[in-house]
Amino acid sequence: MKLPSSLKDIHPAAAVLIVTVLLAGFIFLLNGTELGNFLRAQLIGSAQPCNDQADNDNDGKTDYPADLGCQRANDINEDQDGECFNNIDDDGDGAIDAADFSCKILFNGENMPKSFCQDGVDNDKDGSIDLADQGCANAQDHSEN
After folding, report:
1. According to the 3-state scheme, what is the secondary structure of 41-110?
2. Distance from chain centroid for Cα 32
3. Which of 12, 34, 108, 118 sits in a 20 to 30 Å window from 130, CA-based?
4. Higher-scoring residue by pLDDT: 7, 117
5. Model confidence at 35: pLDDT above 90
6. Quick check: 62 and 55 in contact, CB under 8 A?
7. How many other CB atoms are there within 10 angstroms of residue 64's CB atom?
8. What are the residues whose beta carbons fall under 8 Å from the beta carbon of 74, sequence distance 6 or more?
9. Per-residue pLDDT for 16 more than 90?
10. Residue 134 near residue 144 (C-beta atoms within 8 A)
11. Which letter, b or e, does each residue of 83-117 get, where b requires 16 or more Cβ atoms within 10 Å of its Cβ?
12. Before 113, cis peptide (omega within 30)?
C-alpha cells in the first residue's frame, strides 16, 4: 500500500473523515471541560447550559437571566460567579459583591480567595492576625503591612 506523500494526494472525502475523527477525539479528550462543552455545542448545535431549560449547577435557578451564574444566554457554564452579582454578603465579611475582595480578584464567589486581612494567617509575621493587625484597614484589605 502506497501512503500519500502530501495532503494533496488524499481524496477530499477521506480528508473530511480524517478531520472529523480527529476533532471528535479532541472533543472526547476535553469532555467535561468548558472548552469541550463549548466545542460540542458549536458542532452539534445543542443548547448552551444557560439556555437549555435545565438547572445545570443545582442552585434552584434555571438559565439566564434567573440563574445569576449566567451572564448571557449563550454562556457555557451556569456556576460562574453568581455570588458576586446577587446583592448579598454571601461570606458574611461585611462586603457585598463588587466590594468583596474575592469578587474583585477572580469573580468565582465570595468565599475564595480571602484577602490577607481575613484569611486567618499572620501574613506579615508581626504576631498579629487579620483585623487585629495594625496594617489591616478592613477585612477587604489585602496587605497586613
Report:
1. HHHHCCCCHHHCCCCCCCCCCCCCCCCCCCCCCCCCCCCCCHHHHCCCCCCCCCCCHHHCHHHHHCCCCC
2. 13
3. 108
4. 117
5. no
6. yes
7. 19
8. 48, 50, 51
9. no
10. no
11. bbeeeeebbebebebeebbbbeeebebbeeebbbb
12. yes
Mean pLDDT of 87-91: 83
Q: How far apart are alpha carbons 36 and 34 in whole angstroms?
A: 5
pLDDT at 108 over 60: no
Which amino acid is present at 115?
A: S
12 is written with which cell numbers?
A: 477530499
128: pLDDT strictly greater than 90:
yes
Res. 129: pLDDT tops 70:
yes
Give yes or no for a contact between 57 and 66, defined as CB atoms under 8 angstroms apart: no
- With cell 443545582, the residue in question is 58
